[in-house]
Amino acid sequence: MNLIDIGANLTHDSFSDDRDEVINRAAENGVKQMVLTGASEEGSHKALALAKTRPGILFSTAGVHPHHAAEYTVDVDKALRALLIDDAVVAVGECGLDYFRDFSPRDAQREAFDQQLEIAVDLELPVFLHQRDAHDDFVEQLTPQLKKITRAVAHCFTGTEAQLKTYLDMGLYIGITGWICDERRGAHLHDIVHLIPDDKLMIETDAPYLMPRTLTPKPATRRNEPAYLIEVLRVVADARNQSVQDVAAYTTATAIKFFGIPNI
């Protein structure tokens, strides 16, 4: 089984002591390739540096998360453009809007989002999107750019059926995480994940966040890691009434096509 984790924050400090072991454990559990998330200028540099240590296995994104939107400057824009020229950097983002935390002013979030969508248009790269509690503004801002953007994925989708249908109508790909394994807040995803066409679905861990709560036995720590992508796969396959093998095959094929990475 060859799985691709399309969203892992492996530069996070929680992996500092055992990052190589985490990557090796992932491979032992079928996760052969990963896309490392860049969420700030510094984080994007770190993600690329890590990706360079395992060519063809690790890839990265480069972008500024809405939490850091207030830090977005002309110099940051130039730095992202320079990073995105590298073949190991396969998407713009993580970028979008987050009104749940509002760590950056909303005007700053919208401006940083616009700037990164322009980068995606200019460089003809896919976009790795973030949206939380900002659906209407997100759709309004993204829609005019979609005709010019090659591909875009709604990373870590947690929304409603209506929101999912809107994203699919917009042509977005959908990333599903361990949120679907959380009986407290993700149960609704079981009822709607079947609506996603096979060729629009990808899976991710968002490690070290969103540990699948259905894991048995329970891990000793609350840190999520890419090896647990297989549990997201299992729950998604069950909810879609499909085999694990089939879901693994088409989510991997979709990720290869979406990010333009080699098939190993």
Give the helix proportion (percent range).
Answer: 25-40%
Tally of contiguous helical segments? 9
* Form type: globular
Query: How many beta-strand segments?
Result: 8
State the CATH architecture: Alpha-Beta Barrel
Q: List SSEs in N-to-C order.
A: EHEHEHEHEHEHEHEHH
How many domains? The number is 1
Sheet-strand content, in percent, reads: 15-25%
CATH topology: TIM Barrel
Largest sheet, strands/sense/barrel? 8 strands, parallel
Oligomer: single chain
Q: What structural category do the secondary elements indicate? A: alpha/beta
Return the average pLDDT rounded to an integer: 97
Low-confidence segments, given as residue ranges, are: none
Distance between the termini: 11 Å
